[in-house]
Every structure is written in C-alpha cells, then in structure tokens.
Amino acid sequence: MEPIVSPLDKVLQILPYLAPIILLQLILAIVCLVDLARREMTRGPKWLWVLLVIFIQMLGPLAYLIIGRKE
Description:
This protein is 73% helix and 0% strand. The protein has 3 helices and no strands. The protein has helices at residues 7-38, 46-55, 59-68. The longest helix has 32 residues, at 7-38. It is rod-shaped, with a radius of gyration of 17 Å. The N and C termini lie far apart (63 Å).
C-alpha cells in the first residue's frame, strides 16, 4: 500500500522551488512601493500603481518599473 500524502506534505515538497520566486516577488514589490513613495510624478495615479504592485503578482511591479515611472 502507498502511504497517504497530505496536502501539507505536497506543499513542503515544492517549497524549495517556490521560495526563490516568492522572495523575488517580495523584493520587487518593496522596491516599487518605496519608489512610489519617493517619486512625485508617475504615469497614472499613484493609488492605482500601489494596487497593481500589491495585487498583480510579478506583472504589477514589472509594469510599474517599465511603464509607470515618469523620468
């Protein structure tokens, strides 16, 4: 008989692969939020960029860094 594998065991098995992605996402979000707080002008309202950075993982911060900053 095969041992019963709980969902927690499955998560713990893939966690080493997910950890770098999660860490990268957190670093990107923090960098973007700090930049948003310091920057006076952005392309579009700041509150919208904050929502995009927080709720749209990876793509929100990348979109802000590429499109949102007004040089």
